[in-house]
């Protein structure tokens, strides 16, 4: 038997916007999956670790590994390289090795239209990433 006191808890998600900025995040969970088109995708749960106000907040992030014919394929390869994976040809890797690795993420509050309900959903989104400890490039080519 489970005993639980739910007094004062509303059964709804309360969105907490994270101030738009760069944060150091740690991957706390990484799972392999697929895009709807069948390409490899890594889904990660990341935790902000360098900010007093938002430290401990988590954010989801996905990296799709697209074929060379896709103009956005470079983003997945760049993330693989940032995680220390060998690039240039066929590779096998376990994304679980990424758990506890750190990277820098530009996080921005936003919203998207839910495919399930059609409603607008508020969320915090990782818009850009770079290797932990990398100075910001002058040309703004973070991804």
Tell me what you see in this structure.
- It is a single chain.
- This protein has one helix at residues 73-82; strands at residues 21-34, 40-48, 58-64, 102-113, 120-131.
- The chain is mainly beta and 143 residues long.
- It has a single domain, classed as OB fold (Dihydrolipoamide Acetyltransferase, E2P), CATH 2.40.50.
- A five-stranded antiparallel β-sheet has the order 3-2-1-4-5, with helices on one face.
- A hairpin with a 5-residue loop joins strand 1 (21-34) and strand 2 (40-48).
- The longest helix is centred in the middle third of the chain and has 10 residues, at 73-82.
- The N and C termini lie far apart (49 Å).
- The mean pLDDT is 90.
Note the main attributes of this structure.
143 residues; five-stranded antiparallel β-sheet; OB fold (Dihydrolipoamide Acetyltransferase, E2P); mainly beta; 5 strands; single chain
């Amino acid at each position: 038997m489970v005993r639980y006191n739910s007094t004062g808890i509303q059964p709804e998600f309360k969105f907490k916007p994270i101030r738009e900025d760069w944060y150091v995040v740690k991957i706390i969970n990484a799972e392999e999956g697929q895009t709807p088109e069948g390409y490899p995708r890594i889904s990660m749960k990341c935790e902000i670790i360098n900010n007093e106000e938002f430290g401990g907040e988590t954010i989801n992030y996905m990296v799709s590994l697209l074929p060379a014919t896709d103009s956005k394929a470079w983003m997945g390869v760049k993330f693989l390289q940032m995680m220390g994976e060998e690039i240039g040809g066929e590779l096998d890797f376990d994304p679980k090795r990424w758990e506890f690795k750190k990277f820098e993420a530009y996080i921005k509050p936003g919203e998207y239209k839910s495919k399930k309900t059609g409603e607008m959903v508020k969320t915090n989104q990782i818009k850009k990433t770079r290797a932990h400890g990398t100075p910001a490039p002058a040309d703004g080519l973070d991804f």
